[in-house]
Amino acid sequence: MSEADNPVITTGDEVLSGSVDEKKGVITKKESKANADKSGLMQRLLGSGNEAKYGISAIVVIGLFIVGLIFTVVVCLDNWFFCCDSSMMEDIKTIWGIVTPLLTLTLGYVFGKGR
Questions:
Q1: What CA–CA distance (Å, rounded) separates 58 from 65?
Q2: Which in 11, 12, 46, 108 has the greatest CB count within 10 A?
């Protein structure tokens, strides 16, 4: 079978596909657009093709930032409620000393010189 035997026509909300009726000259099978465009959750979240690397990088940057903030808040709450030592700033510097290079690595990948 060739492409002419199984055409696909997109009209508004429906995608028409199937075999051509020789007598009537029409397509016999109808599919809804939702069934024709079955993109997965990851593809909708990240994008497809060249856009996917930017979606993945955005998720990594946001995730790292949120993790850094959560650890910072936990260290601050721990210091204020449970112990009164002066190492809170050192702990926060240690946390962001790990998170910051990962953030800059990801941003360098996104905004770096492409080939």
A1: 11
A2: 46
With a CB cutoff of 8 Å and minimum separation 6, the contacts of 75 are 88, 91, 92, 95
104 in Cβ contact with 60 (< 8 Å):
no
**Which pLDDT tens digit goes with each residue over 75-97?**
888 888 877 666 888 888 999 99
pTM, full prediction: 0.57
Ramachandran quadrant class, 42 (left: phi over 0; alpha: psi -120 to 50; beta: rest): alpha
CB 95 within 8 A of CB 101: no
Nearest-5° angle of CA 70, CA 56, CA 42? 105
Is the Cα dihedral 56, 52, 45, 112 positive or negative? positive
pLDDT, tens digit, for every residue of 12-65?
Answer: 555 555 555 555 555 555 544 554 456 677 777 777 777 777 888 888 899 999
d(Cα 73, Cα 65) in Å, to the nearest integer? 12
**Residues forming beta bridges with residue 8, ordered by sequence position:** 17
